Amino acid sequence: MSREPVGTFCLVLHSHLPWLLRHGAWPVGEDWLYQAWAHSYLPVVETLDRLAARGHRDLLTLGVTPVLAAQLDHPAALRAMHTWLADWQLRAHEAHVTDPALATREHRAAAHALEVFERDWRHGGSPVLRRLADSRTVELLGGPATHPFAPLLPGRVRRFLLDAGLRDGALRLGRRPAGIWAPECGYAPGLEQDYAAAGVKRFLVDGPALRGDTAAAHPVDGTDVVAFGRDLEVTYRVWSPRAGYPGAAEYRDFHTYDHTTGLKPARVTGRRVATADKKPYDPDRAAAAVARDAADFVDTVRTRLADLRAPRGRPGLVVSAFDTELFGHWWHEGPAWLEAVLTALPEAGVRVTTLRGAVEAGHVEEPVVLPASSWGSGKDWRVWDGLAVRELVADNEDVARRLLAAVDGAGESAGRDATLDALATQAALALSSDWAFMVTKDSAAHYARRRAAEHRDRVRELTDLLPAGRHAEAAARAATFAAQDDVFGRLDARALRRQPSRQAAPTYSGVGSLA
């Protein structure tokens, strides 16, 4: 091992699901939450705990969106998650008749998950996350309340949702997050001013936003807010639109189910192998593949850092960022791969740290002006503002306009208004970036359209009732909506009121607007 690190590596995991509680079950709905919880959140935290017990600190930067954190803490979700884990055990029992090896493996996994859940998660996700942050095992990132695509929102709505998300993070985690995962890495010039005003010190963009120069963080356009860019050369080694480790023949195949039990009995086998011809999953083969691919990734990171250091004359930075749900949910062996990589990188002479740690280590260089960007297809806004979602974009503009008009029309009040708070919640849920993503990618598009329309229609209903003076009827409907969507107990619509003394936010003249 070198006396001086060849460079610094930051792994960033983005944990996010839209609000799913009480909005359907299978194939899209609450089961999506419980699958990700069982197969990603539990094992990833276990991995971090094991590494921390061996003396590792500042392992990675973990983003947990406020809307996901709300579900991980929700009593109804906690009860249902316990039931889901028990049902997993029962399904494993059913598999014993046809596939004893699968049944044994799944029963052990379900029993272990139940034990971990009852021991560590019984009071919700916030105590788990606080423990990881307080021990400096991870740095936690926050974000806007319901994961909206910020560049397309009016300024007041955008700032309201950012502040609401950061306040919620402070409530759950005991500290206001200093870094955020900007939803979808969506950026437009001027957003850094919002971040600075909200106390945000660092955020993520995709590599092309920095024109591929991701070897350091950069202050953005006259502020002290620094942007980190994903190194796509390294990140795509794991997961890309066309390739990556999870597609290897030895790994468990995500898409092949035993339709009686819902368990997954097969390995990938080959990219063009029909489902009926998939080979049985073999844990020993998979473990060997994990070792192989972890070693390849460590070599890739070290080589990349060495290549960055040579022309620069100083150590560089590699930031690799993924959805947390890749590790365990989509890629069954992902948590084992994480543990192998985070163990081996320091042994290979690479400093492993968080985004905060990278700043502390001096990986901040000259200021930059960033272009409009995202981490979606084309690295622009087409996924959330393209032809496929033209109606959703128009609906979202109407939702935001109605929300602001209702708040402005209510006038000053001494206390909170439950009807306006429920209206703000429904608007926030309608503005989730997930619905446009799912429609554009044709991934459960029917569910996404239904959810977006449901919340849009609730906003319209309330904003039709209020100007008509039908306040009692609006209050009754708002209470019904709030009973189903009790996401944020402290979401206060009064924060949306105009602030006359505030300097106008910068505007962006391209597609959409920051105004």
TrEMBL record:
Q: Does the keyword Iron-sulfur apply?
A: no
The record's listing under InterPro entries reads: 57_glycoside_trans_central (IPR037090), BE_C (IPR015293), Branching_enz_MT3115-like (IPR040042), Glyco_hydro/deAcase_b/a-brl (IPR011330), Glyco_hydro_38_N_sf (IPR027291), Glyco_hydro_57/38_cen_sf (IPR028995), Glyco_hydro_57_N (IPR004300)
As for family, the record states:
Belongs to the glycosyl hydrolase 57 family.
Name used for this protein in its record:
1,4-alpha-glucan branching protein domain-containing protein
- Answer whether the UniProt record assigns the keyword Ribonucleoprotein to this protein: no
Limits of the 1,4-alpha-glucan branching enzyme C-terminal domain = 400-494
Q: Which UniProt keywords apply?
A: Carbohydrate metabolism
Residues of the Glycoside hydrolase family 57 N-terminal domain: 11-360
